[in-house]
Amino acid sequence: MSIWEYANPTRFMQTSGKLLPTVAVLSLLCLVIGLIWGFFFTPDDYRQGSTVKIIYLHVPSALMAINAWLMMLVTSLIWLIRRHHVSALAAKAAAPIGLTMTVIALITGAIWGQPMWGTYWAWDPRLTSFLILFLFYLGYMALWAAIENPDTAADLTSVLCLVGSVFALLSRYAVNFWNQGLHQGASLSLDKEENVADVFYLPLLVSIAGFVLLFLALVLLRTRTEIRIRRAGALVARERLS
Amino acid sequence: MIALLRRDLRLAIRAGGGFGLGLAFFLILVVLVPFGVGPNSDILSRIAPGILWVGALLSCLLSLDRIFQLDYEDGTLDLLATAPLPLEAAATLKALSHWLTTGLPLTIAAPFLGVLLSMPSGATFWLVASLALGTPALSMLGTFGAALTVGLKRGGLLVSLLVLPLYMPTLIFGAEAVRRGAEGLPATTALLFLAAITAGCAALLPFASAAALRMNLR
Lengths: 242, 218
Hints:
The structure holds two protein chains of two kinds. By secondary structure, chain A is an all-alpha fold. Helix content of chain A is 78%, strand content 0%. In chain B, helix 2 packs antiparallel against helix 3 (41-62) and helix 3 (41-62) packs antiparallel against helix 8 (156-182). Chains A and B meet through helix 4 and helix 5 of A and helix 8 and helix 9 of B. Chain B: InterPro entries: Cyt_c_biogenesis_CcmB, Cyt_c_CcmB_bac. Chain B: The chain crosses the membrane at residues 12-37, 99-119, 125-150, 157-178, 190-213.
């Protein structure tokens, strides 16, 4: 039993078909519990008022926006090294989800920023690097869409993903040099004594779990769709030959 | 190698389009800005470093699709791929000749255009230094973008979308070096970062470009 079994599309379809409903239901459950708990059963922050509640959307989506790119990096590497088609298709499937998460993070941040900072947008390092990440997602998806041969497209987008990762990281730290930040520090980290206060912390964890599961469910669904598109294409080609 | 470089340079200069176009675009952009923001020299001198850097970057973009497109269409690229010269070296030479025909003229022209934007005279040195150190990275990254899109019919717009995010760190450090130089602050750190980006690009990107070319030619 190893993870490489799922490089076989049939095995992947079998397992992901069984997994998908469970993951989807769990994600829905976590999201409903986390968001309702967060929105209605936690107190207002003493300084931010009720605007603090956007944290339950903002932080998980920002987290997933970065992790989606990370997943694309790993699957691209697997494609380049071991040439498993499922891996390349998973990277393709994850890109629009990552893009959506980036947009959600940017928009919720803007909605929160207006009452708190007095502006929808500031050229703060974190905001700027998210905008750059957004552009990277756009370029990656445009390259997938532009190339007809699926294998060449997978190859080229993988190389773009590798080079892009280096430069996305570089931009993240270059913008620190360019402007001082307005954005507060990380809300959550593993090595800190105290994160956000406990009343906000627990519902936040639940909604983060919801977003992770949602991402997983969407990636599985979209990868299955891509595999089916590939199969349908192969069937059509076979019909035309005979 | 030398022969390839000389061939590319000769083609760029004699065939027209590539060599003068970037420079003319740069000139027009710099002339347009004062019409856009008004002739107030205070404002102009403050935004001059940024405008000059953005202008140089956009002029570099303009000629990217010429790096490989013509060679791809007439089959030269296939010959280069099968030649004893490694494709990595060919990619490096392509980037070098792109820099010699766009980056270098831009670097030389920038101080004169800075006068039009009433840039403080103290910043001239930093402008030339940062462009000289930064534009090779732009050519290198552009070659990578051109290699990715070489097989496409209308790759021009796509190249811009792919390459612009990659240009971000170079632009940040380049414009920051000139801005700090203009205000009399120490600007060496930004210049060193810029040099590091260029050195890193020169060391690694030819491999990525050559890999992308091989994938496209397969």
